[in-house]
Design brief:
Elements lengths: L1 E4 L9 H5 L4 E3 L5 E3 L10 H10 L5 E4 L27 H4 L4
Antiparallel strand pairs: 1-4, 2-3
Length: 98
Amino acid sequence: MRIRLDRTICDGFGLCAKHAPGYFSLDDWGYASLIGDGNVPDEDHDPVMRALLDCPVHAIAEVGERKPSVPHPQLHDDEDPAEHLKTESNEAQWGFTR
């Protein structure tokens, strides 16, 4: 995981430094600074993700590629992509109702 901090957005709530003090420090006015280069090893993922999610102004962001949680159907060259659309006629197949 890799994170970045946008200091121009930070409002100084300090929750990031509370949750992940090894990655965030606060200046004299309470605004956050990123400690290190933003690379987060797997063992520190949870507290850093908590800091990211608890930031009220969303000044912390995860950068890099995320893997999709739901795989997309693989299409062949001769297939019509519209066949895979969710519509009223196939709503039971996709598991949604009105």
